[in-house]
Amino acid sequence: QDGLRQCLSEFRQPLAWVERLDVTLGQVLDPVSQSASSKDAVDPENDFQREMSFYRQAQAAVLEALPRLRKLQIPTRRPDDYFAEMAKSDQQMQKIRQKLKTKQEAMERSEKAKQLRAMRKYGKKVQTEILQRRQKEKREMLNAVKRYQKGLSDKLDFLDEEQTSSQGNKKGNASQRTKKGPNAKRRYKNQKFGFGGKKKGSKWNTKESFNDVSSFRSKVAHNKGPRKAGKGGKKALNKRPGKRARQKMKSRAR
């Protein structure tokens, strides 16, 4: 202790308290249990108790120093228009901002990729469930058919279910077609050129049309009627007969 006091007297300077601002306090009691026995209750090996003891001591020192500063008319609060120069330059802060922006963009990309993976996994799960349900329905139908073939069952409910499902699909497709319909360009072409394809036998000959000869004209059929100047003009009227016709004409002449 004598050596410590000697060292303290060597570097101690006779300055006012405003220049030193030192506050020395002993151990502060716990406000919850203010008892004399609690002084020795702090375990130095217990980190929580030791840090709480330091915290209470510092708080008590601040509560003691603030009235003394106010008495000396020294401000203890920072003014509203206080401006302090930053320790780092603008270039360094710009680098930090760029780094933070890059990190945020990377996190957003990672989050989007995670969402896409989750959506793909969900879609694959739904597809697998649909395939499993179809396989199960097919298996049940085959088992019902086998039971019916063996005579173990006389019910044909599975056929009704299949028909209702197919009818439901057809109705759904028909409703989709009626809702959609052809566009204006397709309707104009259908009106102008027809629908194409098979016309349901509308041009086929029938028994009545075969026996109906009211529109037959013999003069027109045998080229005996008055001719019109068509594509060939005068040459079409003086057309040379064929070879067989010329041979018949020669045989008649003999």
From TrEMBL:
Source domain of life: Eukaryota
GO biological process, one term: rRNA processing
UniProt key word Calcium: no
Main location: nucleus
Assigned GO CC terms: nuclear periphery; nucleolus; preribosome, large subunit precursor
Cell location: Nucleus, Nucleolus
Transcription in keyword set: no
Signal peptide span: none
Keywords, comma-separated and alphabetical: Coiled coil, Nucleus, Ribosome biogenesis
Protein name: EBP2 protein
InterPro entries: Ebp2 (IPR008610)
Function text: Required for the processing of the 27S pre-rRNA.
Family listed: Belongs to the EBP2 family.
Biased composition (Polar residues): 164-176
Compositionally biased intervals (Basic residues): 115-124, 177-190, 219-254
Region span, Disordered: 101-139, 156-254
PANTHER family xref list: RRNA PROCESSING PROTEIN EBNA1-BINDING PROTEIN-RELATED, RRNA-PROCESSING PROTEIN EBP2-RELATED
Bias type Basic and acidic residues, positions: 102-114
